[in-house]
Specification:
Urease, subunit C, domain 1, 11 helices, 26% helix
Length: 453
């Protein structure tokens, strides 16, 4: 069956097992949130990390004496970054998506969590990035599930072109009559790692979907409020993560939650002192259960372009940005694991991906210490994807995913921009090789006025 026909070239393929490289002399910030480790050697073997040890402990048993050595004296190493909230195919546009993925991996992002799109394209991009046909992070993605009333949203039509939104395996309308085991099995068939529980579903259905997803080996990723299911009901259902800090403001709201399109106004005054008893109780439960907050805290700063935004929309964006910072800071103080997700990408003329901005926001506006921000964008990001066994920290027996910086990000989060090179699955991406395509259009993030997806 065509065995004599060569496949697509894979210039970004991972090295084979036995291809050992010794990265010596680094200051390692390993993603655990612990202190930096001076004079550290990282030994990679193919796609994996063989050893992480002090320079003085390298022996011939750990690293072949003939292996090439990369001197990282004066450099800082962090794990490959993970953006826990991306959309790369609504609507599908292969050139735009490839440009965004390319910028991400050259910007230190070695994995992303795609939170529901046209999975026909996402699956192909995930395959192409994995085998090295294109430069890009690893992609784990979700199939969306929502109530039938949600599917007149125009984005669902963009992500189901040629088919009926709500009636395709990657985007299903759920009712009381739905065969949930079949629905989840169809989602699994897309290659999804999770179901995303989005909108217009009651608490009982959220709980039943979550239980069935877990039974079939999928994660359950949910909006912070599913309408009419409240944040407390979503967390009580046992979901693995909830998205959007501002969505949690609906916990304890005085007005009823009905549908996604008919949200009650946010009671901003409840949160002015930084503490809210309803949220405190919610965060305590999230901490007990290990529920991750995919905060997308800096999302609203993406809308701060006065020349392009009317005064009312700009005021709303600023209010929501303050709210996101307040709620995220409260969650951090309560001990909730917070991942670093964006829900958008920066304009194509920007040199680095949106995740850099999110990390700066978490440090600057939410008051999260730099080492913990890096943990959010590495280890907790891996946890949000169910991938902490293979990525998220620089450690032996994990994937060789890390970024090398010339300046210390613990001193200033903007030092993320000092990337010299990135290693993803053992393949090296030199920052000097990154050039933005002149006609690239990466500005496909969340439309203005949208409240997060």
């Amino acid at each position: 069956m065509g065995h004599e026909i060569p496949g697509t070239p894979t210039p970004f393929a991972a090295p084979t097992a036995g291809s050992v490289v010794v990265y010596r002399g680094a200051t390692l910030i390993d993603g655990t949130g612990g202190p930096a480790r001076q004079a550290t050697t990282i030994v990679t073997d193919g796609t994996m990390i063989r050893a992480v040890v002090p320079d003085a402990e390298i022996t011939d048993e750990i690293a072949d004496a003939a292996a090439p050595v990369v001197d990282l004296a004066g450099r800082f190493v962090i794990p490959g970054l993970i953006d826990s909230h991306q959309h790369i195919a609504t609507p599908p546009d292969r050139a735009t998506a490839e440009a965004a993925l390319r910028r991400q991996v050259y910007g230190g992002v070695t994995a992303i969590r795609d939170m529901a799109d046209d999975l026909r394209q996402v699956a192909e991009l995930a395959r192409a990035a994995l085998v090295g046909e294109i430069p890009g992070p690893d992609i784990r993605y979700a199939a969306l599930m929502a109530g039938p009333s949600f599917f007149d949203d125009p984005r669902t039509h963009e992500a189901a072109q040629g088919a009926t939104p709500g009636a395709v395996p990657w985007m299903q309308a759920i009712t009381d009559e739905t065969d949930l085991p079949l629905a989840v099995a169809m989602a699994r068939g897309t290659g999804a790692h999770a179901v995303k529980i989005y909108a217009d579903l009651p608490a009982g259905t959220v709980a039943a979907l979550t239980a069935e997803a877990h039974r079939q080996g999928l994660a359950a990723w949910a909006h912070g409020t599913v309408y009419p299911a409240s944040p407390g009901e979503v967390v009580a259902a046992g979901v693995d993560s909830v998205s959007h800090a501002t969505a949690l403001a609906q916990e304890g709201t005085k007005q009823p939650l009905t549908t996604y399109k008919d949200k009650p106004p946010i009671e901003y005054d409840r949160f002015t002192d930084g503490e809210d008893p309803h949220l405190q109780a919610l965060f305590e439960r999230m901490l007990r259960q290990g529920t991750i907050l995919d905060a997308t805290a800096g999302l609203w700063t993406h809308y701060f372009a006065p020349e392009e935004t009317d005064a009312d929309s700009l005021a709303l964006a600023r209010a929501n940005s303050r709210l996101a910072a307040t709620i995220t800071a409260h969650a951090y103080r309560a001990g909730v694991p917070i991942s670093a997700g964006t829900d958008y990408e920066t304009d194509p003329d920007r040199p680095f991906p949106a995740l850099h901005d999110e990390m700066a926001f978490l440090a600057r506006e939410c008051g999260i210490p730099a080492a913990q921000v890096i943990r959010s964008a590495t280890l907790v990001g891996a946890m949000s994807m169910g991938a902490q066994d293979v990525m998220g920290t620089v450690a032996a027996d994990k994937l060789a995913n890390f970024a090398v910086l010339s300046a210390n990000p613990l001193d200033d989060m903007t030092h993320l921009g000092s990337i010299e090179f990135v290693v993803k699955r053992g393949h090296r991406y030199d920052r000097s090789d990154y050039h933005q395509p002149p006609d690239a259009d990466q500005g496909t993030g969340t439309p203005k006025g949208h409240d997060g997806r």
